[in-house]
Amino acid sequence: MQLKKLEIQGFKSFANKIEINFESGITGVVGPNGSGKSNISDSIRWVLGEQSAKTLRGSKMEDVIFSGAADRKPLGMAEVSITLDNSSETLPIDYSEVRITRRVYRSGDSEYFLNKSSCRLKDVRELLMDTGIGKDGYSIIGQGKIDEILSNKSEDRRQIFEEAAGIVKYKTRKDEAEKK
Ligand code: ATP
Ligand code: MG
């Protein structure tokens, strides 16, 4: 499965709408310090459902909204969309292309969309479960992540293997059934 496109508007340093198209092969992002390279990977974590402001290098979720610059007023909303090629049907959904969108307002309200239809965070989570793509998946290896995996408790490491093995979905269903 391939990451096809990332659209960012009002997220962190990206006040204007930007669109990044990913071709097959490796994409490298280069730029001076503070130019927004890490903000791009933050935007991917965020659209996949990240709830921790700290993981996104902020102190509260509102910090992801463009906070203004010398020549530009702050914005009231941040929106990120990620488009994944699903022609291999890795994601259990009947679309060959899947676009996930997340939007947040200063009030703190977050909205999610799957191929333009409003949905819940839970739907996004379930869709990505066992694919390695979700916010806790192994598709984003941040700085220090390898060390973390090596020094983690064995139960934490087990989660990574369970996601790779594709059984998180069944465990989650079992846990939910037991709660009822
Ligand atoms: P480095 O090479 O040092 O890792 P980088 O290219 O990864 O740099 P980022 O960390 O992505 O840079 O970007 C940091 C910039 O984003 C800072 O200038 C910071 O002011 C800006 N920034 C972060 N959050 C916001 C926000 N909410 N509104 C406006 N600008 C923001
Ligand atoms: Mg950086």
The major pleated sheet works out as: 6 strands, antiparallel
Bound molecules: adenosine-5'-triphosphate, magnesium ion
What fold name stands as the CATH topology of the largest domain?
Rossmann fold
Overall number of domains: 2
Question: Whole-number radius of gyration?
Answer: 17 Å
**What's the total count of β strands?**
6
User: Which H/E pattern describes the elements?
Assistant: EEHEEEEHHHH
Poorly predicted tracts of residues:
none
β-sheet strand percentage: 15-25%
Overall geometry comes to globular
Helical amount among residues, as a percent range? 25-40%
CATH second-level architecture of the largest domain? 3-Layer(aba) Sandwich
Family: Belongs to the SMC family.
Subcellular location: Cytoplasm
Binding site for ATP: 32-39
Subunit structure: Homodimer.
Topology, element by element:
Layout: E1 2-9, E2 18-21, H1 37-47, E3 77-85, E4 97-105, E5 110-114, E6 117-119, H2 121-128, H3 145-151, H4 154-165, H5 168-179
Antiparallel strand pairs: 1-2, 1-3, 3-4, 4-5, 5-6
The structure holds adenosine-5'-triphosphate and magnesium ion (MG).
Summarize the structure in words.
- With 180 residues, the protein is α+β, with helices and mostly antiparallel strands.
- It has two domains: 2-128, Rossmann fold, CATH 3.40.50; 141-180, no CATH class.
- It has five helices and six strands.
- A six-stranded antiparallel beta sheet has the order 2-1-3-4-5-6.
- The longest helix is centred in the C-terminal third of the chain and has 12 residues, at 154-165.
- It is globular, with a radius of gyration of 17 Å.
- The model has no long low-confidence stretch (mean pLDDT 92).
- The chain binds adenosine-5'-triphosphate and magnesium ion (MG).
- The site of magnesium ion (MG) has 2 residues, from α1.
- Homodimer.
- Belongs to the SMC family.
- ATP binds at residues 32-39.
- It comes from Alkaliphilus oremlandii (strain OhILAs).
- Required for chromosome condensation and partitioning.
